Amino acid sequence: MAKHPTPKRKLAKSAGRRRYSSFQYKTRKKLDNKVSLTKCTNCSEPRLTHHACPNCGFYRGRQVLDLSSKLKKKIVTKVSA
Description:
Layout: H1 13-34, E1 37-39, E2 46-48, E3 58-59, E4 62-63, H2 67-80
Antiparallel strand pairs: 1-2, 3-4
């Protein structure tokens, strides 16, 4: 089994940080291009593509999420606390 080569000289901290920061920049740039938002057909709020709208609960023209029951639960817990 081959062994990894050992460094000949000590590497400065700034060199490692510089390499890591460029890696971070590249990965953030890739992730920014992956996320795309569209307008909801029902309420015109921005939402993720291929996901139900978190504001109104509609997806492809029909009600998928029942947000009224979640809203009631949140109101009841806030009043009792």
